[in-house]
Amino acid sequence: MASLMILKSLKKQRSFSSLSPITSSISRFVSTLILGEHEGGQLKQSSLCAVAAAGAISADNSISLLLAGSGPSLQQAASHAASIHPSISQVLVADSDKLSHPLAEPWAELVRLVQQKGRYSHIIAASSSFGKNTLPRAAALLDVSPITDVIEISGPQLFVRPIYAGNALSTVRYTGVDPCLLTIRSTSFPVPHISSDSKSDAAPVSQVDLSTFSEDILDKSRYLKLTSQDTERPDLGSARIVVTGGRGLKSAENFKLMEKLAEKLGAAVGATRAAVDAGFVPNELQVGQTGKIVAPELYMAFGVSGAIQHLAGMRDSKVIVAVNKDADSPIFQVADYGLVADLFDVIPELLEKLPEKK
Ligand SMILES: Cc1cc2nc3c(=O)[nH]c(=O)nc-3n(C[C@H](O)[C@H](O)[C@H](O)COP(=O)(O)OP(=O)(O)OC[C@H]3O[C@@H](n4cnc5c(N)ncnc54)[C@H](O)[C@@H]3O)c2cc1C
Question: Which residues of this UniProt protein bind FAD (predicted)?
Fold first, then answer.
């Protein structure tokens, strides 16, 4: 521990000496590496939220975005990322077949390699399956302790994160050595709208030198296949409206009612763990402590009791509507609008009254 402390103070002196004049630890140089996720040649919204989070660390933050993969879609994503947000200072691209799938082990090694050169003070990933999988492994390789699920950033070393399934908030001060590794909840760092006029020139894009990339780690995991649903509905994590069904739907067949409702509202479909465990829907739709965290403008819950683990994933929604036939269901304690009724009466009526989606 003592050696860690000494290392930290030495490191600070080193970084201060490059910045003159030296004032206090608050003014130390802040630079952040963001682990970017991309799909179909576009940077994912959750990575943009990570950029917003980096902006909260310090106004002077120098932000580098790291993208990996192979082929034209990577280069397309790099051009997209370079011009999408004025606070991105540079885009780093690791183009290699070894990184063509977002596997945590090679990505962790990539982060170690990039950190060796860039000496960032912070490394951020969104709290997605990818970020939750990769960042702790990168932290282990860099010998630091990550801080996960951050929802508020009060300075370069001060972070707020929920604990006890969101029932308490813990403020954490990072006292370790650089870099400070964070996963952030995208719903807590919305990206402000950027008008096309306010965008500055595109950030420079440079290739990461992978000549010293260690291959030892590659046999630790193997990519088999990706299964995803082909849907035009919005992504659950970033949808403006979410309609969620619980065990009260009773069957996979009945769950189609939720899909019809989502269709009419332009919403994403969510589910409770009970509905997932009963096989009504795949587990990628699960909302909650062990599922996705959502905070849409409108969250509609049908046949959902409101267990604490479910609330952990949706309680930050702006407006919550609940339909449940049991007036004592805990979901009504968080609902802005509650209807004690049978969902099999309510949903068909809603479907009838809602206009067709244009
Ligand atoms: C470690 C751990 C992690 C967990 N993580 C999650 C998680 O991420 N997400 C999650 O959701 N759960 C999670 N759970 C499970 C959680 O505790 C609950 O069991 C689950 O959320 C209950 O789902 P439900 O509300 O669909 O089912 P139930 O609790 O069975 O509630 C069904 C509700 O439907 C109502 N209902 C029934 N019929 C009708 C009808 N016709 N019309 C209207 N209402 C009707 C009933 O009144 C009831 O309130 C976790 C549990 C543990 C232990």
Answer: 247, 272-273, 286-290, 303-310, 324
